[in-house]
Design brief:
Shape: globular
Structural class: alpha+beta
CATH topology of one domain: Immunoglobulin-like
CATH architecture of one domain: Sandwich
Radius of gyration: 44 Å
Distance between the termini: 136 Å
Strand content: 25-35%
Number of helices: 2
Oligomer: single chain
Amino acid sequence: MSRLAPALAVLALLSACDRRKGGAADMKPADDWGATAQAAEPAPADPTDPHAGMAMNDPHAGIDMNDPHAGVDMTGPGGLPAPDPDRPIDPTRFVKGKIALGKGVSAPAAGVVFLAVRPADASGNPAGPPLAVQLLPTGAFPMEFSVTEADAMIGGTGFAGAVVVTARFDQDQDVDTKQAGDLSGKIAGTIPAQGLELVLDTVQP
């Protein structure tokens, strides 16, 4: 009996060691405990997804529904209100005549004629933006012109009253530039005006 007791004690000790070894193997490292408790961070936005970051449950997000034209350019030339294409045209409002070359003035070989009708001030000089404009191909002089309300370029402005009609024979066909040899002239009138003779008598140096 005295020899059996030490053997049993050794077996018990070995069994206890095996149990401790197996339990430690089944346990996760301490560093992993916190990782499972933390919430997963959101994935970065996908640059290939055109809807990334958009509130797809609200298709009108960012749009002013009280003004569906907000952010849309509804103006005409020079930032001025564009005329209503469906507006009635008064056939009694017109400016008609012909464009002629001044004495001793020769027409350039090529170009176009920019024609503009502007309001006249008290001195009979053009004032303010054009009421109407036309672009005329050049040909034999004298050449006829006819400007009506249909050529108006400013919404809400009447085509009436005292005006100054100006014309420029422009060689490079660019209204914003001038070059030597361009021709210009002007004539005053009151709408309706007929039989005007606008003479190109000024040569750009």
